[in-house]
Design the sequence.
C-alpha cells in the first residue's frame, strides 16, 4: 500500500493479482452482449481504497463501457460513492487516504490513479446530490469550466454554453435570462445547470452521485430523460439509492456491499434474475 | 420459499396472489373432475352445474388480474418477486382456459344422442385423470417453487398426446363406418381435443413455474408423439 503522494511520484511496487472471484459478472443479457462489443472507456482493476485505516473498497474490478450508463447500487456505506469519487480523485483532497490497484483510462491506457489529479478532473465531470451552482449568472456557471481550461473567446464560449444547456435540456427555460443569477432557478433547474456545467468541457466521464435525491418526481424524470439522451455522447457512471432509477436508465449495474462489487452486468438481467443471493436480497427488499 | 421482506405488506401481497392462483387451480380441477364424471355417467344435471360453476373460475381470474395490477403499482418488484407476480398473471389465464374446456365438455355431452362406448369411456377417463394429475403436480410445483417438478410435469404431456391420437383415429373410423354417428362423433372429437388442449395448458403453466423459480426458460423441445 502507498500513500497518495507516493503514488503520484512513482508506480506501485506491485499490483496485486486481480481478485474477481467474489464478483459475479453477468454477461448473458442482450444488452451486455452489445456492451461487450463496444469499447472500454475505463477499467477498474483490483481497486482497493482506505480512509485512513478503514478499508472502504476491497479489490473491485469492473469495466466501464464507452457511452453507456453504469449504475452503482447498494446499501449505505457499501463503497459505491467511494468508488465513484475515485474516478475523479476526490479522495486526494483529504490526507491519510490511499488507493491500491488501477483505474485504466482508455484509449490511451493510462492508470488514472497515477495521473495528476488536476488533469484527471479536467477530463472527468462530477455532479453531486444537492445542486451546487456558483454564485454567478447562469451563463458564467456553464462557462466556468471552459475558462479554467483557457477558453476565453466569446464566440466559442457562447457556442459551448448553448450546446451544454441544450444537452442538459435547460436551454429553452433559460435562454432569455442567461445573465440572471443561477440561484433564481428551481432546484431541478439548478441540478440541470450543474450537469450542463459538467458537460461543457466535454468530459470523458460524467459522474453523478445521487443527482436526483433532493428533487421532486417531475424534476427527477427530466434529469433521467436527459441522462438517457446523453448516452449518445458521454460515458456516465451514476450512484443511486433509487433502484428503480438504476433499472430505468442504466445499461449496466453493479451491486456493492461492504466495499466489494458483488455482482455486475446487464441491468435488465440483474434486476430480473440476479445470480447472487446477496444481490437478490437487496433488490427485493430482504436486506438486513 | 424466500426470506421475508423488510416491508411485510409486500409478503402479504405476494402470498395473497399465490393463494388466489392456487384457489383457481383447485376450482378448475374440481370443474374438470365433475365434467368428466358427467361425461362418463351421462349426467346432464351435473353437466349443468359444471357450466354454471365456471363463472367462479372466471371471477377468480378477474380478481387475480386486478390484484396483479395493484401489486405492480404499489410495489417496485424486482428479481424473484417480479417473476412471481408475472407468473401469477400468466398462469391464471391458462387455468381459466382449462376451466373453459371442462365447461365445453359439459356442454357437448348434453348434445350426445347415445351414451359413449364403454371402451372409449376408459380412454376419456384416462385422459381426464392424467390431466388432473398433471394439474395437481404443476400446482404443487407452483406452491413449493419446485422447478424440477415443473420440468417433469412439462415432459409428461407426451402420453396424453398419444392417447388423444388413438382416440382421434378411433372416432374417425367410427364416423367413417357409420354416418349416423357423425354428430355424436364430432362432439366427442371436440371433447377429446379440448382435453388434449387442457394438457397443453398444463405444460404451459409448467414452463411459467420453471421460469418463475429459475429465471430461465425451459430449454429444448418437449417430448412429442405422432400428432393426430
Sequence:
Amino acid at each position: 500500500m502507498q500513500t497518495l503522494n507516493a503514488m503520484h511520484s512513482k508506480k506501485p511496487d506491485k499490483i496485486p493479482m486481480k481478485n474477481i472471484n467474489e464478483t459475479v459478472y453477468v454477461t448473458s443479457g442482450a444488452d451486455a452482449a452489445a456492451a461487450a462489443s463496444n469499447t472500454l472507456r475505463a477499467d477498474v482493476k483490483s481497486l482497493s481504497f482506505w480512509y485512513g485505516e478503514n478499508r472502504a473498497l476491497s479489490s473491485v474490478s469492473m469495466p466501464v463501457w464507452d457511452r453507456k450508463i453504469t449504475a452503482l447500487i447498494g446499501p449505505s456505506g457499501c463503497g459505491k460513492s467511494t468508488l465513484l469519487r475515485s474516478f475523479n480523485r476526490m479522495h486526494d483532497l483529504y490526507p491519510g487516504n490511499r488507493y491500491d490497484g488501477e483505474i485504466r483510462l482508455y484509449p490511451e491506457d493510462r492508470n488514472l490513479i497515477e495521473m495528476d489529479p488536476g488533469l484527471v478532473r479536467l477530463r472527468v465531470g462530477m455532479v453531486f446530490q444537492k445542486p451546487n451552482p456558483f454564485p454567478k449568472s447562469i451563463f458564467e456557471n456553464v462557462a466556468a469550466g471552459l475558462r479554467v481550461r483557457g477558453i476565453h473567446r466569446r464566440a466559442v464560449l457562447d457556442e459551448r454554453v448553448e450546446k451544454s444547456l441544450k444537452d442538459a435540456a435547460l436551454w429553452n427555460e433559460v435562454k432569455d435570462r442567461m445573465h440572471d443569477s443561477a440561484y433564481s432557478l428551481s432546484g431541478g433547474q439548478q441540478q440541470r445547470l450543474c450537469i450542463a456545467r459538467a458537460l461543457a468541457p466535454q468530459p470523458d466521464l460524467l459522474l453523478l452521485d445521487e443527482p436526483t435525491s433532493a428533487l421532486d418526481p417531475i424534476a427527477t424524470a427530466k434529469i433521467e430523460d436527459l441522462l438517457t439522451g446523453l448516452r449518445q455522447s458521454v460515458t456516465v457512471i451514476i450512484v443511486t439509492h433509487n433502484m428503480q432509477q438504476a433499472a430505468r436508465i442504466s445499461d449496466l449495474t453493479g451491486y456493492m456491499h461492504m466495499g466489494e462489487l458483488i455482482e455486475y452486468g446487464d441491468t435488465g438481467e440483474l434486476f430480473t434474475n440476479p445470480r447472487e443471493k446477496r444481490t437478490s436480497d437487496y433488490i427485493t427488499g430482504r436486506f438486513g | 420459499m424466500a426470506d421475508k421482506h423488510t416491508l411485510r405488506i409486500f409478503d402479504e401481497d405476494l402470498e395473497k396472489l399465490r393463494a388466489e392462483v392456487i384457489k383457481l387451480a383447485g376450482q378448475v380441477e374440481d370443474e374438470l373432475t365433475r365434467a368428466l364424471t358427467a361425461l362418463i355417467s351421462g349426467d346432464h344435471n351435473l353437466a349443468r352445474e359444471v357450466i354454471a360453476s365456471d363463472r367462479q373460475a372466471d371471477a377468480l381470474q378477474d380478481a387475480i388480474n386486478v390484484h396483479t395490477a395493484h401489486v405492480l403499482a404499489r410495489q417496485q418488484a424486482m428479481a424473484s418477486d417480479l417473476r412471481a407476480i408475472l407468473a401469477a398473471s400468466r398462469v391464471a389465464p391458462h387455468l381459466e382456459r382449462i376451466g373453459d374446456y371442462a365447461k365445453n365438455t359439459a356442454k357437448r355431452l348434453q348434445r350426445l344422442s347415445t351414451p359413449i362406448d364403454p371402451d372409449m369411456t376408459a380412454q376419456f377417463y384416462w385422459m381426464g385423470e392424467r390431466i388432473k394429475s398433471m394439474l395437481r403436480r404443476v400446482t404443487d410445483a407452483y406452491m413449493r417453487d419446485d422447478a424440477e417438478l415443473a420440468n417433469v410435469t412439462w415432459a409428461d404431456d407426451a402420453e396424453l398426446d398419444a392417447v388423444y391420437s388413438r382416440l382421434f383415429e378411433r372416432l374417425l373410423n367410427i364416423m367413417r363406418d357409420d354416418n349416423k354417428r357423425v354428430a355424436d362423433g364430432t362432439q366427442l372429437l371436440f371433447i377429446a381435443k379440448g382435453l388434449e388442449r387442457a394438457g397443453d395448458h398444463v405444460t404451459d403453466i409448467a414452463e411459467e413455474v420453471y421460469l418463475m423459480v429459475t429465471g430461465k426458460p425451459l430449454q429444448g423441445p418437449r417430448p412429442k408423439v405422432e400428432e393426430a
The interface with chain B takes residues 243-244, 247, 271-274, 279-281, 283-288 of chain A (CB under 8 Å). Residues 154-167 of chain A form the longest helix (14 residues). The domain at 4-283 of chain A is CATH 3.40.50.300 (Rossmann fold). Residues 164 and 200 of chain A are 5 Å apart (CA to CA).
